[in-house]
Amino acid sequence: MANGRPVGGPRGMRGTRKPKNAGRTIARLLGYMSGKKYMLVLVVIGILLSSLAGVVGTYFLKPVINSIEEGVATGYFDVRAFIMKLAVMAGFYALGVVGSYMYSRLMMNISTETMRRIRVDMFTKLQSLPIRYYDTHAHGEIMSRFTNDTDTLREMLSQGIPQMFSSSVTIIGVFVLMCILSPMLTTLIVAMVFVITFVVKKIGGQSAKYFKRQQKAIGSVNGYIEEMIEGQKVVKVFCRENESKEKFALINEELFDAASNANTFASVLGPITNNFSYINYALTATIGAALAVTGVLDIGTVASFLQSTRSFFQPITQISQQFNSIINALAGAERIFELMDEEPEHDSGTVTLVYATKDARGTLSETDARTGVWAWKCPQDDGTVTYTEVRGDVRFEDVVFGYDENKIVLDGISLYAKPGQKIAFVGSTGAGKTTITNLINRFYDVPDGKITYDGININKIRKSDLRRSLGMVLQDTHLFTGTVADNIRYGKLDATDEEIIRAAKLANAHSFISHLPEGYDTVLTSDGVNLSQGQRQLIAIARAAVADPPVLILDEATSSIDTRTEALIEKGMDTLMEGRTVFVIAHRLSTVKNSKAIMVLEHGKIIERGTHDDLLEQRGKYYQLYTGMFELE
């Protein structure tokens, strides 16, 4: 736990389950294909054409072989009639090839487009989820829904379902044909089908069980690998390579065991059904030959029936092989839809942030121009609108909060930050410092108490507008793939090059950026791995500076910057903070000395507050921390 939040990891992941409602999942998938109705109709036509053409082609073996038998018996062979029958049979098989190509090609396009839409909806959903979701779900487990689950779903849509439908049509068509050719021999086939169904059900049940375990194990492996990649420096610092490998070996062994059993049971289904079909073929050939000798059946009928048995059992084998993969894919689809069904971040706020102008009397008016004056646009019950200037007055009134309802992190916190004041929070890890900033920007909403911003309850302010008024520099810096300029511009997408350079100079980042191979056009990858931690944090500070917000939150903003660099940027930071309300979280007490008010937190309560000098005079916890009698943990 970190500040009361669950930390993601393999142990916190949820594995793939058997679909609870396969019908509903399939219905939702069909909803994604609703725009392809005409293509789906063509797919069905192609499958019917492919399957039934094969059935009719098989039936034509009867007249072809009977014409040969008749020619042998009479001594006269009609070559022209024989060739015509062969041509008709070949024509039906050719139609089957055309049908197969048509439905395979169309289904590939449909499945690709469907997966594109699903991935877009998944990613869009991720942007609407609250921070709590990311705090309680491992990143590797979320990623597995975009990779493993979508992969199995794509295979099911492009291959599994069409093949199941094609096989089902073939089975029905061939069964009808066999009933027409010989009801007696068909009885033998039905008996064998019952035997095969019983065996498939037994083995398929085992296979499905292990496939579910395999999916869960894949999620665990993905999560652990992602965790180890992110923490590789820590692993090497503490020489834990062997322990990491041993733990991975255990998780990987679970995946091996599940995958081995799943694929073993799935793989034996084909040979078993094939061998049963061979046994049935031999019995049918023997009985059919006896019936032909006794004159009950003609040779053409026996030959056509024997070919039908091959056409009948082959799709049964295909269905048995596809069944588990489809169940697996539906389980993955259900995981995907579970993500899509997650509760989005609720936002009932109606107050918005706008640019404003002031007349001589101080009356505010909304404008589209960047005037440097911000205002809260507040709709009233009578339909009118009032404007409140954004000054940065933030107040906590008896706030109680816990990430877990059984563990309180903030217990009755009351504080205020007047416009332009710099407020600092100090205290040991877990005291609640970062939680306060998480509540200011509404990453979490308070269940008890109230937070106001310029006299407005922040629950009434639309979250996007509230966060737009806040500039944040986090302890854990994240840089995106792109140029240095793009990463700074992330704070203000329409910022000019001049504004970017000015912000970089303000954060004291201009000097090192200028010495990069391509300057501001240097491309950063892998979270800025080619930069030092301090340089990455300077870019993050420049990103906040270019946004030019009325309120700043600095969460250990200089924690990764050496003392010399910190001293160099203090002047620039003072310029950046001038006229703004600033909340500072710091372990280095030297960085908060000039704060208007310093809050000392312990166990979710403010135990001391005052200026640096006031707190030293009190000779309390802050004095002990500052003089080194105690250290911040």
How would you describe this structure to a colleague?
With 633 residues, the chain is an alpha/beta fold. The chain has 3 domains: 10-340, ABC transporter transmembrane region fold, CATH 1.20.1560; 352-388, no CATH class; 394-626, Rossmann fold (3-Layer(aba) Sandwich), CATH 3.40.50.300. It has helices spanning 22-32, 37-59, 61-74, 79-128, 131-136, 139-181, 183-230, 232-237, 241-293, 299-340, 433-440, 463-468, 484-489, 497-506, 510-514, 533-547, 563-577, 612-618, 621-626, and strands at residues 352-358, 364-367, 374-379, 385-389, 394-401, 410-417, 422-427, 448-453, 456-457, 470-473, 482-483, 523-524, 551-555, 581-585, 597-602, 605-610. It has a 6-stranded mixed β-sheet, sandwiched between helices. Strands 2-1-3-4 form a 4-stranded antiparallel β-sheet. Strands 6-5-8-9 form a 4-stranded antiparallel β-sheet, covered by helices on one side. Helix 2 runs parallel beside helix 6 (139-181), helix 2 packs antiparallel against helix 10 (299-340) and helix 6 (139-181) packs antiparallel against helix 10 (299-340). The longest helix is centred in the middle third of the chain and has 53 residues, at 241-293. It is elongated, with a radius of gyration of 36 Å. The two termini are 15 Å apart. The model is unreliable at 1-17 (pLDDT under 50).
